[in-house]
From TrEMBL:
Transmembrane segments: none annotated. The keyword Heme applies. Pfam families: CCP_MauG. It is found in: Periplasm. It comes from the Bacteria. Residues 204-322 form the Cytochrome c domain. This is C-type cytochrome. Keywords: Heme, Iron, Metal-binding, Oxidoreductase, Periplasm, Signal. Its main location: periplasm. InterPro entries: Cyt_c-like_dom, Cyt_c-like_dom_sf, Cytochrome_c_Peroxidase/MauG, Di-haem_cyt_c_peroxidsae, MauG/Cytc_peroxidase. Residues 1-22 form the signal peptide.
Length: 345
């Protein structure tokens, strides 16, 4: 969904403080300009897209596709934890630990940045690389990954999902299917009903929290339908982040990818959808609870010591961003009964 505001209008909104006389309609108008609605009814997919989505769903949940049978996409993105794993460092093949906290994949459809360091062009590239990276499925080669797909009985499903291709069973097509599935995973929340004009869809506290969220400056980075996920930002604009988070080895962020000085400590601004369900927080999982994360963000990014009341109000707003999990995510698919082939295939 495209937002209707221009950069100029966004600038004016963010730099025009609310007054005590601002009423419900003023707040709603501002929120509509800053954010975007996840609609109640998603566009009905055509037959091929539906086949690709279901194929991607099966791939997402299938542990047999990893080198040792221990890992699948769902291992790091578990439904019961709103597509996270609640670990400081996610674990892949052979229990190899990743460097950062796994982000939720819910509502990626409304985000333009996939990874903490923006080192993936899109969801397709992330899915493609997952098949052979030792931090994910761990296959030694493309050929090995394809062999696992074939042994698991996927060839007919690829033929249905990619009927116009000469060779349907490819990792590129697998990545397309996984990306199509992930883009289908959206979580509509009470905040969306509010944006549609139902003032009572969120509590009075949440509305006060929304006002605080905008007034304090949080929405300068956390905006759009996903309430984030659209830009990169330095973590620690006003202070060294490790001075507050107390992490022993500060992550250099995007600089490790680009080798540019200006990218030091630059990370993705994460989506705040379902944020109440996805602790711990930040790339290094240093904030164990939401109150701490809110307070630290105020200090690090805005140079503001938020009061207990401000933290409580902002948290009330963030609670209104929790949506219902889509059925095709909370329920695992039925997979074929083909056994795991083992590491030496």
């Amino acid at each position: 969904m495209k937002l209707s505001f221009t950069l100029l209008s966004l600038f004016l909104i963010l730099n025009t403080p609310f007054t005590a006389s601002a009423n419900d309609k003023d707040l709603l108008k501002t929120a509509k300009a800053l954010f975007g609605i996840i609609p109640a009814k998603q566009e009905r997919p055509d037959k091929i897209t539906a086949e690709q989505t279901e194929l991607g769903r099966k791939l997402f949940f299938d542990y047999r596709l990893s080198k040792d049978g221990s890992t699948a996409c769902v291992r790091c993105h578990q439904p019961q934890f709103y597509s996270t794993d609640r670990l400081s460092q996610s674990t892949g093949f052979n229990n190899n630990k990743g460097a950062r906290n796994a982000q939720s994949i819910l509502n990626l459809k409304y985000q333009t940045i996939v990874h903490w360091r923006n080192d993936r062009i899109n969801i397709e590239e992330q899915a493609l690389r997952a098949f052979t990276t030792p931090l994910s499925l761990g296959n030694s080669s493309t050929e090995e990954a394809l062999k696992r797909l074939d042994l698991a009985g996927y060839s007919p499903l690829f033929a249905k999902a990619f009927p116009k291709t000469e060779k349907p069973l490819t990792l590129e097509n697998a990545a397309t299917a996984l990306a199509t599935y992930q883009r289908s995973l959206t979580t509509r929340a009470p905040f969306d009903k509010y944006l549609e004009g139902d003032i009572k869809a969120i509590s009075a506290q949440a509305q006060k929290g929304l006002k605080e969220f905008v007034t304090v400056g949080c929405s300068s980075c956390h905006n759009g339908p996903a309430v984030g996920g659209r830009m990169m930002q330095k973590f620690g604009v006003f202070h060294d982040y490790w001075g507050i988070t107390k992490v022993a080895n500060p992550d250099k962020g995007r600089q490790d990818v680009t080798k540019k000085d200006e990218d030091l400590y630059i990370f993705k601004v994460p989506s705040l959808r379902n944020i109440t369900e996805t602790a711990p927080y930040f790339h290094d999982a240093s904030a164990k609870d939401l109150d701490t994360a809110i307070r630290w963000m105020g200090k690090l990014q805005l140079n503001k010591d938020l009061s207990n009341e401000q933290v409580s109000l902002i948290k009330a707003f963030l609670e209104s961003l929790k949506g219902e999990l889509p059925k095709n995510f909370r329920e695992a698919p039925t997979l074929s009964s083909e056994p795991y082939a083992g590491p030496n295939i």
